[in-house]
């Protein structure tokens, strides 16, 4: 075969292969396009994606530095030429034409005062730019405004800007709710610390004093236990700890209580080593043990036994504190757990309030567990008058998000 024919045949083969390749590529593009969904589905995805990216920068309010990052996403969401976020003090984020900052501040002030969206025509230097502004209202309180500039501003953008302002307001409200929950959790821990201070410290110091003359060595040991316990209870390392750390503090607490009760207080510990590193809310087991001593065994003639168990239950650690003391009326415990979280919040002077105040530790632990792990993960209390009390808590072994946000867990109670 002549060389020219061979070259022609080779070129034909290459062209054929290229054509096949192009067909395959086009088919992949078409399949890929179908997998992305219809135009409406893609638009919905893009809207939700931009909203989600903006949301994380708005929880601290529009006055925060993150508002600049949120503005970029909100500008893309509205499809405007220039976008501004304004707080009550002035422009905090401007994406686009910097010359429009004064117009944004002026229009934002007007809509915050009026409480409704407004449109202005011809606000640019050449009077060729339109603007729409909508107030960010937290309830009836203006927290700022958003302003969108375009040429021109159409009716669809006016409606969209008002909706985005309402959505921004809802994100700020969620951020404020998170902040109030954090403040409430800190207040609950302070309430637990206040509960420890007057009752236990007085009894512990009296017990130590009783040994100073008769058994000085025992008195010195109890002083060290007292120091360990108070150092842990009043530490400032955040709102989370480990089961191991909490049990270390409980051991110091029980040593001090045994100095007061003597043989009337017996303790059994059954702890699975694999759950010791589990992270739990700070002061969540110790108040249960103190309740068992104060309300279960102190009133029982002859004292009794407290059993503390921590076991591995798959993805959870299960902790129980049980006493064979005087027990409670189950209805009374239901009232305690249903009472307002902070001491003294209920009506003063009522019998329910007195019982609730006596069991502030039980109620606060239940509230904090539900806050951190969900409503289904509160305390379970089994009790009956004359039959003792068992309190069970079940916590995930995975690190709670709130705990990871507070930084590393201290390695020891001495830290």
From TrEMBL:
User: Which residue ranges does the record assign to the Histidine kinase/HSP90-like ATPase domain?
Assistant: 280-399
- Which domain of life does this protein belong to? Bacteria
Family matches, as SMART domains: HATPase_c
Which key words tag this protein in UniProt?
Answer: Kinase, Membrane, Transferase, Transmembrane, Transmembrane helix
In Gene Ontology terms, what is one molecular function of this protein? phosphorelay sensor kinase activity
Q: Pfam families, alphabetically?
A: HATPase_c, His_kinase
InterPro entries this protein is in? Bact_2-comp_sensor_kinase (IPR050640), HATPase_C_sf (IPR036890), HATPase_dom (IPR003594), Sig_transdc_His_kin_internal (IPR010559)
The answer to whether UniProt assigns keyword Repressor to this entry is no
Q: Among its keywords, does the record have Lipid biosynthesis?
A: no
A GO CC term?
membrane
Where would you find the membrane-spanning parts of this chain? 6-26
| Protein name per Swiss-Prot or TrEMBL | Two-component system LytT family sensor kinase
Q: Which organism is it from?
A: Microbacterium kyungheense
Provide the organism lineage as a comma list: Bacteria, Bacillati, Actinomycetota, Actinomycetes, Micrococcales
């Amino acid at each position: 075969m002549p060389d020219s024919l061979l070259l022609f045949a080779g070129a034909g083969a290459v062209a054929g292969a290229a054509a096949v390749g192009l067909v395959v590529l086009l088919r992949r593009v078409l399949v890929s396009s179908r997998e992305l969904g219809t135009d409406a589905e893609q638009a919905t995805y893009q809207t939700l994606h931009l909203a989600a990216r903006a949301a994380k920068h708005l929880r601290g309010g529009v006055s925060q530095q993150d508002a600049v990052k949120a503005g970029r996403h909100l500008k893309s969401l509205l499809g405007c030429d220039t976008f501004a976020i304004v707080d009550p003090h002035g422009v905090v984020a401007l994406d686009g034409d910097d010359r429009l900052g004064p117009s944004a501040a002026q229009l934002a002030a007007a809509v915050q005062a009026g409480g409704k969206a407004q449109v202005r025509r011809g606000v640019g230097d050449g009077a060729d730019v339109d603007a729409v502004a909508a107030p960010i209202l937290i309830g009836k309180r203006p927290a700022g405004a958003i302003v969108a500039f375009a040429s021109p501003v159409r009716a669809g953008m006016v409606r969209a800007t008002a909706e985005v302002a309402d959505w921004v307001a809802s994100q700020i409200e969620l951020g404020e709710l998170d902040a109030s929950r954090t403040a409430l959790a800190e207040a609950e821990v302070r309430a637990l610390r206040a509960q420890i201070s007057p009752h236990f410290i007085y009894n512990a110091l009296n017990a130590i004093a009783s040994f100073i003359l008769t058994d000085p060595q025992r008195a010195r040991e109890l002083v060290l236990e007292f120091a360990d316990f108070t150092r842990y209870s009043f530490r400032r390392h955040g709102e989370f700890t480990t089961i191991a750390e909490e049990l270390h503090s409980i051991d110091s607490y029980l040593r001090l209580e045994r100095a007061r009760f003597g043989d009337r207080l017996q303790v059994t510990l059954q702890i699975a080593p694999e759950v010791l590193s589990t992270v739990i809310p700070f002061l969540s087991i110790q108040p249960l043990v103190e309740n068992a001593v104060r309300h279960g065994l102190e009133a029982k003639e002859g004292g009794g036994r407290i059993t503390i168990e921590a076991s591995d239950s798959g993805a959870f650690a299960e902790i129980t504190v049980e006493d064979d003391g005087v027990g409670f009326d189950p209805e009374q415990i239901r009232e305690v757990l249903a009472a307002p979280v902070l001491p003294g919040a209920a009506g003063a002077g009522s019998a329910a309030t007195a019982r609730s105040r006596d069991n502030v530790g039980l109620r606060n632990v239940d509230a904090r567990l539900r806050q951190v792990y969900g409503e289904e993960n509160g305390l379970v209390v089994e009790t009956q008058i004359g039959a003792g009390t068992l309190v069970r808590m079940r916590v995930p072994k995975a690190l709670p998000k709130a705990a990871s946000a507070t930084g590393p867990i201290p390695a020891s109670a001495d830290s």
